[in-house]
Amino acid sequence: MQQTTQMGVNRTGAQMSPIDTETMERYAENMGPDSGIDDMNVPAESQPAADMRAQYIDAADPVGSVPLPGTLKGAMSTTVDKLTGNRPEVLIDKLGERLAFERTGTRLYELMIAKCKEMDTSAVDPDVLGTLMHFHDEEAEHFAMVDETMRAIGADPTAVTPCADVAGVTAMGVLQTIADPRTNFAQCLNALLTAEMTDNAGWELLIKLATETGHTEMAQKFQQALTEEEQHMATIRQWLERAVITEAT
Ligand SMILES: [Fe+2]
């Protein structure tokens, strides 16, 4: 597999055909933007795409719902939360999101390990595979921890919550990047960094949410996951820097 960036025949740039570029620019100028945000004074009917988007937004249903508690324990803890003025569905939704994300994280590292077995990554770190394996195991542990936490409050970890659904869609590009057999080590690290940065912010938010809603024990338990995720993010960022700078110099 080709690991380094090469110069070659790439026809995607405008400079490849100045005459066609001129025609394209003239066409774009005549058509104008159709995003609906460039000129708020332009009536929607003269921006058909923006108009259509607005109609869909107005008519759209939300992305799923948080399931009602299926167990007596869940019903009890939901009632207690409701009585204290909290909306437990928000916490359950975000727990569902972290669960989905950690599952995806485990899969990302599996893909990354498979790819790195076919590459020489020793210039970046002598033990890339060992470290990736370690991070993989921690993602799986985090998944198990969230699963256990959800069961402890009577929530169903097998249900896809709205935020879990959205996080899955958002992560699709990262998965596609790493699964693509053509992407090299640095490109995969770039995608992994996107996931790890989001993951870190997700744990930080979840810890704040658990604290604010009176689940201090839960927040303390999650702090350990955040510490490990910070290490993942720092390592991936450092590897990416090394991989790119080594290639360039
Ligand atoms: Fe991670």
Automatic annotation (TrEMBL):
InterPro entries: Ferritin-like, Ferritin-like_SF, Ferritin_DPS_dom
Residues annotated as domain Ferritin/DPS: 95-242
SUPFAM superfamilies on file: Ferritin-like
Gene Ontology MF annotations: ferric iron binding
This protein's name: Ferritin-like domain-containing protein
Originating organism: Cupriavidus cauae
